[in-house]
Each structure stands twice: as structure tokens, then as C-alpha cells.
Amino acid sequence: MSDKDFEKVDITIRSNTKDIFAFTKLVPNRIKRIKKASNESITDDPINDLAKKLHPKLQYLQIDQIIEETKSTRTYRLVPDAKRGTEQLAYFRAGQYLSLKVEINEEWITRPYSISSSPRESLEGYYEITIKKEEDEGFLTPFIWKSWKVGTKIISSGPEGFLYYEPLRDKKQILGLAGGSGITPFRSLAKSIAAGDIDAKLTLLYGCSDEDDIIFYEELKALEKAHPEKLKVVIVLSCEEITLKGCEAGFITKELIEKYADVANNSVFICGPQIMYDFIKKQLKRFNLPPKQIRREAFGEIKNISEFSGFPNDAVDKTFTIKAHIGGMVKEIPAKSTQSVLVALERARLAPPSKCRSGECGFCRTLLIDGNVYVSPISDWRREADKKFNYIHACSSYPITDLELIIPRTI
Ligand code: FES
User: Fold this and answer.
1) Which end of the chain is more exposed for a tag (fewer CB within 10 A), N or C?
2) Which domains does the chain have, with CATH numbers?
3) What does the radius of gyration of the chain's CA atoms come to, in whole angstroms?
4) Is the pLDDT of residue 229 over 70?
5) Which atom of ligand 1 is nearest to the CA of 361?
6) CA 248 / ligand 1 centre spacing (Å)
7) Is the CB of 76 within 6 Å of ligand 1?
């Protein structure tokens, strides 16, 4: 709410006694109103209609445009597919993601992708997601790269995730630390700030390994030029040869952060690959910030789980058996210790619903009735009660013995 909105609010202040006596009339007044009401049954349900619009379980979309951003990055513009039931896109908050549900070789898998367009653009009828083709990214991005064309139909969740600006919680100044394709939520945020939809300032330190890998360079620099009082964009390049003017060389270190931001007065938002996050975490530790001042986009599975402290050496490279109870059925499937329980269940087409794939959303919550899992320390977002009663988040749990699970429902 702006100050102007507050001026419009009409408040009647009465005495304490009058307010107390008003309670005594609450029930009789309600009865009077009910008696006066029409006998016609109510067919409209505006509150539930609004909730469904804002939080749809699924959205049916199709690709309207594909934009080549760099040699390995593309932006896909997605519009609603009214023929399959989505007439309007759900509104979102800059920084949120969509969980896409994709069928490959008769197997349904989900992947989260940040929305790189702005919330305002969703009201104009489109979302954009920007995907980098990583060679070691498994089979989904190569599949998307090869098969997604204009007109391809997509199924997605509603907007999800917590990497958004919240004026009641966050400081007016945001320090964005982005790495590689982790720039996508910051593009959405920068556009929203530039458009005046978010009343905050953004200093963005964007780390890339090469000049050719910088995504949205021209666009971000144009936004900065148009709104220097609100946006500052610094490209940080770790390559040896740098031709681009105005960049910083090296990595996002404590010293570099201090050069551009008064960290104590910033809310810090981080999005990037795990290796960058591990590095930045160490740098930020030196500022001694309270955890609430740091927000991190958590999605993405961990690739090197066996290197985490506490992962048992004798489980590395082993394959265990998961006995999965689902409905009235019991199925036994193989599960590698270094792949999440979710991946094993997906391969066997037994997966519970999933969205973030990093322990945060709780959609893949599953009951462990026998055996042990290693839970990734950086993505253990389970509630205490869940821990006590042996619920795991399948996406952030790794089998270290044979397991027996009860799966609530499949995707
Ligand atoms: S998919 Fe979100 S917690 Fe597992």
C-alpha cells in the first residue's frame, strides 16, 4: 500500500465502551441480516475463484516465441492455452518459479525454472523462462533444446518459491548476487523495480565465466541507464581475457561486495549454481549477517552429494533397493546412493508430486518406514514434526541402506 492508499481508509473511532457493547449486538444483527437475505442459492464464489486464479494446480501453456539469448541460452515465451483450459496466467511475484511437468519416454518429470519476465508481463498474457543448455544437466535440457518449438504445449504449476521482495520483511535496498543462468529471477526483479511496481533499489553483482555467457547484458544495462537511482548492474567475469568495459575481474568476494554495497543495510538475494553458492556463502559469513537478511533460490538437485560432510563413505557408489508401497501395490526398485530418492521413484514411475526439487516446497513428502537416508544439510527444510515421525522429502534424501517407503500419491 502506498501512503495515498492509507489516506483513503475511513476509520471511525468510538469510545471503548461503545466498542464493547457493539459485541452484544453482533449475533442479533447477524440474524437480522440473514432474515433479510434472498432465498436464491449463491452460485458465484468469488473468493475461491480468485484463489484458483492466483494458485492454479496446473497451467496449460504453449510456446509463442523462442529468443536466442546466448549460444547456449534460450528464452521461451509461454502463453495460455485456452483450448486446454487455461484462459489467464496466474499472477506472480518477481523471483518466483514455475515447475514444468514434462513427459520424456513415457516418464513424467518435473523441473523448476525461474520466471524471467516481469509480473506485469503476465497480466499482458505471457511468462518467459530462460534455459541454459548444460552439458552435464542430465536429459531434460537437451530434450527441451531439441524438441521445444513454437506451438509446443507445456504443463506447469502455478508460480512457486520464496525468492521475492517482501516490504514487511526486507530492507529497501536489495543486493542481488547472481551466477550464470541464476540471473533469471533478477531480470524479473529489475524490470519490476524499473517499472515502479516494487519500491526498492537493486545492486546486482552478476558473475559469469565468459563474456559470451552473459545473459540479458544489453537489457540490464539499458534498465540501469534509464533508472540509475534504482538499479546498479556490475558484471563480474572470471575469464582471463576481458574486452568488455566496466566489468570486474575475478569472483564475487567479500571485498568486491563491500565495494558496491553497504551490506548491513541490504537484503541479500542469491541465485546461481551450487558451486557459486558455496563460494558466496563463505564470503557472506564474514559479514555476520542474520540469516533472515539472506534469501537464496533453493531449487536444483545436488550433484556431488557424496562429498558432503557426513555422507557415509561405505555407501558411495552403492545401489540399494527401495520397497515402495503405493495404493494397494508394493514395488521394489533400485536406487543409487548418489541420486535422490525422488529420481529413483521417477525412473520407476512411482514419484510423488514435486516442484522445487531441493527440499523446500514439501510436495514430495514421503513416509520412511524402514532404512536410512542421508539428508542434504543445505536442503533439509522439513518441519520438526515431520522429522520426528520419519517423513522425508524425497528430492533431498539419498538412500544409504535399503529403504521401505509409503508414497502418498504419484504425479
Ligand atoms: S520437490 Fe519440493 S521438497 Fe521435494
Assistant:
1) N
2) 53-156 (2.40.30.10), 173-296 (3.40.50.80), 307-407 (3.10.20.30)
3) 25
4) yes
5) 2
6) 36
7) no
